[in-house]
Amino acid sequence: MKFPHRKFLHTAVFAVCAATLGTAFAAPDARIAALAAKEKPALLETLKDLVSIESGSRDLEGLEKISNLIADRFKALGGEVELIDPSAEAYRMEDTPEKMGRVVRATFKGTGKKKILLIAHMDTVYTIGMLNKQPFRVEGDKAYGLGIADDKQGIAVITHIVSMLQAMKFKEYGTLTVLINGDEEISSPGARALITRMGAEHDAVMSFEGAYVKEDKLSLATAGIASVTLHVTGKASHAGSAPELGVNALYELSHQILQMRDLSDPATGLKMNWTISKSGSNRNVIPASATAGADVRVLKVSDYDRIEQQVNERVKKQLIPEAKVQLNFERRRPPLEATDASRAMARHAQQIYKEELGLPLGADDKAAGGGTDAAFAALKTKAPVIERFGLQGFGAHSADAEYVLVDSIEPRLYLGTRMVMDIARGKTAEK
């Protein structure tokens, strides 16, 4: 099968011609452009291998298989590879499994000083057996497969960036670290502590979630995600003959929801919305239990403290003193907040795309939907952390439409490789 890369080569020729005519465009680095073209069919084969392994977040057998494959790839590239079980230091939420998929950490030692972290995740939202109906395939400019956009393309792009750096014998970084997570789709309960530590230990973090098909851009900010769960315990009694002997958990739950319905703050982007509830067992029985859940979104880490304090204060005001009310506030993901350092690094990436490839690249510092491991990496550092260095894609979490654009492979390999080289050389920070 031939994998066309004419679009990228046309861009390179255009950039060269523009430079000759004295415009703002510069010629692409010929070595990197040639290697990106060479790696394109190999990357598609890597995608096929990754997509052909089912690796749902709770599928430990599948996660073990894919983590072994990833580990072997980075060992073959000369990395010091560890397979880390993150279960022991997991942040336990209501839906956290006892054991989580392993993290693959590959370390490449260089001759320079800068420490660079590349991150992606191997787990998907799909259940065992779905692969049979959705095998990997390429149709025109689209490569399809379950988990291909979210986030197996990220693993493949990182793998082939490292391959390109090795082919050029580039080692001007101090340490190049690759971290591939196995529990991202369930809010990274196991890997979050490791990702946070690693983020603080590196000078720059590039995260390889996919870019968008309709709007190719990097993300500098994402919303934080939390949940509030209310459990109310009352006392059952016959609703017709002795309702006064019961303690109506539904009444108390309704009171709690109503008194916490106004905690959203549009001025700061804080959102809290009650979304699910359940109570009782029979129409003619005073409900002895009731539960409700709320979704919380924040744009700043500090807003977590504020909203958690508010709900804990409100819940103390009960309608029925005899009812037992339990509130659980879970910080599922912190927000990724845009910083001056990340804006400067994003502008450098945009300059490469525009001047060397003749392509537009956005860099959005408004919080995008969906959580990201980049937010954990940024939690304890002032170093630049940027999301969406991966391929352009579509259909994440869908059962039949997930794909990546084949024509985005070479530009993204070029960009990722150039960024690693420039970060290593200290060229991405504005003076």
Automatic annotation (TrEMBL):
Catalytic residues (positions): D123, E184
Secretion signal span: 1-26
Entries under SUPFAM superfamilies matching the protein: Bacterial exopeptidase dimerisation domain, Zn-dependent exopeptidases
Keywords: Carboxypeptidase, Hydrolase, Metal-binding, Protease, Signal, Zinc
Pfam family, one: M20_dimer
InterPro entries referenced in this protein's UniProt entry, alphabetically: ArgE/DapE_CS, Bact_exopeptidase_dim_dom, Pept_M20_glutamate_carboxypep, Peptidase_M20, Peptidase_M20_dimer, Peptidase_M20A, TAT_signal
Domain called Peptidase M20 dimerisation: residue spans: 221-319
Keyword Signal appears in the UniProt entry: yes
PROSITE patterns recorded: ARGE_DAPE_CPG2_1, TAT
GO molecular function, one term: carboxypeptidase activity
Necessary cofactors: Zn(2+)
Name of the molecule in the record: Glutamate carboxypeptidase
Source organism per UniProt: Variovorax paradoxus
